[in-house]
From TrEMBL, chains A, B:
Subunit: Homodimer.
NCBIfam families: fadh2_euk
One GO BP: tetrahydrofolate interconversion
Gene (name only): LOC110532243
Its EC number(s): 1.5.1.53
A GO molecular function held by the record: FAD binding
Pathway membership, UniProt: One-carbon metabolism; tetrahydrofolate interconversion
Biased composition (Basic and acidic residues): 37-46
This protein's name: Methylenetetrahydrofolate reductase (NADPH)
Length: 670, 670
């Protein structure tokens, strides 16, 4: 918070925002069928009101943009982890010196956009107006709107340099920015402003500062977040004083769990706040013991928050996280505000972009790469009807660049080499990497395999149910990258597989997706004839050679839910059209993430390249969801056929050999 | 067949159809998701080819338009019954003297349209061109296309009067009509023409007649149906002769089961056919014994059809039904062609109108009145997305006229009075009518109640499962008009509740809809509080006073199916918006069908009118489909509350009394 020079001006005259040139930018709302979560259609201020009226307590989290691209990748992982605890919103600070409105991975704008679009978090973008032209500010706001951001924290910001003076027609105060937003964008954005429980350090007086806060609210702000403070009484008095002069909007206390001696010192300097004597007395003696200070900080924050919540004046708490998670999460856990087992609205994370809120179906292929899916479909107009029918489908984004979430791993090259092998000696050594990942056992070099190119995270709890079977088949070169078990009507509240509103039932068809050799595919196709029409399959290689038994290329729903008073929800499909787009990405990951770890022409790289060039990507669906999953039996039958082939009939060439022209190519490492 | 003067001309020169002014009327095809029955998207000629290629035998049925409106109602019931046996198509003959292209209920055009739109039957409309202007013929064809008809039987027809002469620019031959259809409507219609196994009676020779048939096919006909014949050899020789001169299209034999002496005599006279001596020798001695003749006719038709089918030249049989069903059905049963247990594509009959083929969801309210539903939504543009959301919904057809299928009963006033009571003495006597209908037991006057205003047919087999419960509640004034049991994953092949393609599973939520008094509703609303959110309800009276616990007025899917390789199909919903349109119709049926049986101001009429004015229409859904249906328990709890009310609290007026202002009105018959 203090890093982004979050201040209002104390000067008395705060008019100046133009009221001319207003244009209404209200958007027509469009409703999807069925709406599972009424929150999804609400604005932040409405959600806040509903939660407050229901007597529910909630929390929000503040982050600042990282300095480096790898810092950005880590922060976004943190968004996912901290997002799972159920914050009402997060906010991202604005750093005028850091090109905050640019398209850089580390800009405030892109970090906030990522939180909304990829992590599905309701987000507030900070914006400072000091020393900015109206055109520039309008440009930032238009861009934010285009990216799906709906909430702005309107700040003055620090003057750049000591010789700053008020400009006649420019922005001198946060009030000017609030007025400008309302004028140019009507009621589109929810607007938040800053409050100072001890008065702004530059303000003439506490009362004068309160009057300026009232002006900001009167100009159109929807709620207030306060600067941090150290005593509950400070905040509670501030709220009383605000109410007394007619400020009626929500006022959220800014909570700062002390996390270390240095960061506290820096804070004191930047924010010109005084740390109370009783806190300094505790901290000074333990200033070299980080753990002790953090534990004290947690304890101090918890007890202060308890007083705030019990006062009845505080519906929610806003946390200055300093981009760290341990202390804030611990405070929230102790307060009982952290949602340990969040209810999922759909089996995948719903994007918070206003346009994507209505999205209600996705192909299963990107289940482990949702950010890539969102990136590739970001220009789609129509998500609720986002089918991929032959003629009606808008194209997927092209596979032509390397976006942050697209083909890069979040692990370093060194870490990847440790996990996936410094040196590969055969296809079998690739199989062993898959097996180590599945079983969570160390690989031959003693390192745990925490990710694969297709799976950036360890196995999901749901997939863990299949671990033994997955282990067995991966050892034999059925290299699984995605699977789900069948589910026949589990309650929507089930902690592992449940999703959607209470009182419902969720279902799944068993699904298995893997890479495997063309020899295996030849046997598999023979075996699959016994499983018609129970099992649907799609089999494709990198060249697009494609075999399927799908009806008319129709999508197959593999996850669905039945809920009280709703239509059926079917959020995950095996879609034949999108599979051919996924194929490009799935094969590219062999090369981009794995082969390129090794030197050109090295045996390791050639092994991965051979797999990329010759293996097939296979997906199987067992349609008979009430019965035991037969897909393992299909693979067993395939192995059985390979192990005990029927007597040779030399004159006959198997008709279903899908990759004949490749079969006599040299196979390295065999 | 002979009634519509179905003949081609034997004159040699059959040119004359204009080739100018052609316009393409190809329609863009639009695919729905998911397509359950690939047949639904095919043309008749494609279906015929698929069935023939598969080695399957099939049949079709010919009908003529009835003379009276009540005859039309009966014929349409026959369409439903005979349609259930699985004909590939039906055809409707054209009677130039009977205003065949008009909007009258009895016209050929309207009968064929009804078969397509309301009965979901693939249908061929006959059309004769003799003595017609091109404008008139084009007008008929345009109207047929507009009504959803896609197949035409192109005939010359009899000249009107003896002084007929060829017209220069008019239609003299069926060939002219075929050419005209292809010219004006491109490939839109499938065209059938007539063939004469013994030569046309007016033809110069058998060979000359064959050459004219070749001309008709060359002009664009897709297949041939023959005039009736009495010996299999006659037809098989005809087919050989057709093939010999290059006629390659399907040739369907016209089968006429002899059904009586008089109809056979009439046939002989009109068609100028000779009945073979071996048949006359059997028939003459039994000419006064109708049953014996019909049995002989069945036996003769079956043995001839067996020879035809075994020849390998005959993929399907076309039956001249004379609008009767017994003989034809018996022949088909003995041949094994009648489908005793037809597979339903969806739980309701799919309309065969090209525009409606993609329709995949309907409100449950019209389950027993599908024709009324189709009529009221006939002007909708968009059936597959036919949701009834608050803003997006097109209006239902207005309740402003009395169409054939709309508010009239197919029974006569006399029959209705016998079933529903010559004289009603109380509301209780109305309850007894409902109970008699449910239990299929005679009413107090000894008559079976075969229908109710809301149910034109006896109880469906599915509803029969609920008979005991329905009986119990109707006796106490819970007047049920629609219900379905819960189903938790029965195979799609289930003979009673199954629908959709094989290998799937069907599901239902329990549903119950009834009229009941405002006293009962007051108790019911108290009881329903215990069943939140398990039970959804909508309760409305004729004045539109409406109570519901539906989320945001969203539809609730109450029938759905899961199939191999498809998305989820959810064909039946409880839709809050459409319920308010259904309410108008459901209440109107009390007055239009029942009250109006009795004299103005008569006690019987006043009793029905009282119910109409004061009762509520209630629907209940039990969302917890895997558990036992709780809706009977809800009704039991309501009775329990009524029988044993909690102690009086005199000062308190029940808040949920929904119809308070009506409660002190005089109640006749109580």
């Amino acid at each position: 918070m203090f890093e982004d020079t979050w201040r209002t001006c104390s000067k008395s005259d705060s008019s100046g925002a133009s009221n001319s040139g207003c244009e209404s930018s209200k958007e027509s709302s469009r409703s999807s069928t069925p709406v599972l979560d009424t929150d999804r259609t609400d604005r932040l201020r409405d959600k806040m009101r509903h939660r407050t009226e229901s007597g529910d307590h909630w929390f929000s989290l503040e982050f600042f943009p990282p300095r480096t691209a790898s810092g950005a990748v880590n922060l976004i992982s943190r968004f996912d982890r901290m997002g799972s605890g159920g914050p009402l919103f997060i906010d991202v600070t604005w750093h005028p010196a850091g090109d905050p409105g640019s398209d850089k991975e580390t800009s405030s704008m892109m970090i906030a956009s990522t939180a909304v679009n990829y992590c599905g978090l309701e987000s507030i973008l900070h914006l400072t107006c000091c020393n900015q032209t109206k055109e520039k500010i309008t440009g930032y706001l238009s861009k934010a709107k285009r990216l799906g951001l709906k909430n702005i924290m309107a700040l003055r910001g620090d003057p750049m340099g000591a010789d700053w003076e008020e400009e006649e027609a420019g922005f001198n105060y946060a009030t000017d920015l609030v007025k400008h937003i309302r004028c140019e964008f009507d009621d589109y954005f929810d607007i938040c402003v800053a409050g100072y429980p001890t008065g702004h350090p530059e303000a003439e007086s506490y009362d004068e500062d309160l009057r300026h806060l009232k002006e900001k609210v009167d100009a159109g702000a929807d709620f207030i977040i306060t600067q941090l403070f150290f005593r509950a009484d400070t905040f509670l008095k501030f709220v009383r004083d605000c109410r007394a002069i007619g400020i009626t909007c929500p006022i959220l206390p800014g909570i700062f769990p002390i996390q270390g001696y240095q960061s506290l010192r820096q804070l004191v300097k930047l924010s010109k706040l005084e740390v109370p004597e009783e806190i300094m007395q505790v901290i000074e003696p333990i200033k070299d013991n980080d753990a002790a200070i953090r534990n004290y900080g947690i304890e101090q924050a918890v007890s202060m928050c308890r007083v705030l919540l019990e006062s009845g004046e505080v519906p929610g708490l806003h946390f200055y996280t300093l981009n760290r998670e341990v202390a804030t999460m611990e405070v929230l856990r102790q307060l009982g505000l952290w949602i340990e087992d969040p209810r999922r609205t759909l089996p995948w994370a719903v994007s918070a972009h206003p346009k994507r809120k209505v999205e209600d179906v996705r192909p299963i292929f990107w289940a482990s790469r949702p950010k890539s899916y969102i990136y590739r479909t970001q220009d789609w107009d129509d998500f609720p009807n986002g089918r991929w029918g032959n003629s009606s489908s808008p194209a997927f984004g092209e596979l032509n660049d390397y976006y942050l979430f697209y083909l890069k791993s979040k692990s370093s090259k060194d870490a990847l080499l440790k996990m996936w092998g410094e040196e590969l000696t055969s296809e079998q050594s690739v199989y062993e990497v898959f097996t180590s990942y599945i079983t969570a056992q160390p690989n031959v070099a003693g390192h745990k395999v925490m990710c694969l190119p297709w799976n950036d995270d360890p196995l999901a709890p749901e997939t863990n149910l299949l671990k033994d079977e997955l282990d067995k088949v991966n050892r034999r070169g059925v290299l699984t990258i995605n699977s789900q078990p069948s589910i026949n009507g589990k309650p929507s509240s089930d902690p592992i597989v449940g999703w959607g509103p209470p009182g419902g039932y969720v279902f799944q068809k068993a699904y298995l997706e893997f890479f495997t050799s063309s020899e295996n595919v030849t046997a598999l196709l023979k075996v699959l004839k016994k499983y018609e029409p129970r099992v649907n399959y799609h089999i494709v290689n990198v060249h697009g050679q494609n075999t399927t038994n799908a009806h008319d290329m129709q999508p197959n729903a593999v996850t669905w839910g039945i809920f009280p008073g709703r239509e059926i929800v079917q959020p995950t499909v095996v879609d034949p059209v999108s599979f051919l787009y996924w194929k490009d990405e799935a094969f590219a990951l062999w090369i981009e993430q794995w082969a390129k770890l090794y030197e050109d022409e090295s045996p390791s790289r050639m092994i991965i390249k051979y797999i990329h060039d010759n293996y097939f990507l296979v997906n199987l669906v067992d349609n008979d969801f009430p019965l035991d999953n037969c897909l393992w039996q299909v693979i067993d039958d395939m192995f059985e056929l390979l192990d005990n082939p029927p007597e040779e009939q030399p004159a006959e060439q198997p008709a279903e050999q899908p990759n004949d022209e490749q079969s006599d190519k040299e196979q390295p490492g065999k």
